[in-house]
Amino acid sequence: MDRIILKGMSFYGYHGAFEAENELGQIFLVDLELYLDLSEAGETDDLEKTVHYGEVFELVKEIMEGKPVQLIEHLAERIAKQVFSHYNRVLETKVKITKNNPPIPGHYEGVGIEIVRKR
Ligand SMILES: Nc1nc2c(c(=O)[nH]1)N=C([C@H](O)[C@@H](O)CO)CN2
Q1: Cβ-count burial of 83 within 10 angstroms (0-12 exposed, 13-18 middle, 19+ buried)?
Q2: Does residue 103's CB lie within 6 angstroms of at least one atom of ligand 1?
Q3: ipTM above 0.90, yes or no
Q4: Which residues does the annotation mark as catalytic?
Q5: What are the pLDDT digits (tens) for 59-86?
Q6: For site-directed labelling of 98, which of 33, 38, 43, 66 has its Cα 20 to 30 A away?
């Protein structure tokens, strides 16, 4: 299916299950895919016939820079719900959230989760 992709969005937030994370904060990376039919927008060259990815960025930013929660799963679920409630055209969404520097000793590129939700 066609999709709109928002890749490597980066936000500073205070989410986490540990107190240190809530106090110091850290960078969260978000990748988002919206599955929808893009043929009408392609045919007509009309922004009204698709989803404006700039608006979607603002929606994600509000959640990621908003009230701290414990789990990145909860952030991803909130993003998926907001996408569906704002954009009827979107049939499915994939949300990936990564922390590159969580307070976990060891060597790794990052830790994260990915969810796929259908309307
Ligand atoms: N599945 C998850 N596991 C963990 C999370 C999370 O959000 N989802 N969070 C933490 C801590 O906040 C982590 O950043 C530091 O250990 C632990 N595990």
Answers
A1: buried
A2: yes
A3: yes
A4: 99
A5: 999 999 999 999 999 999 999 999 999 9
A6: 38
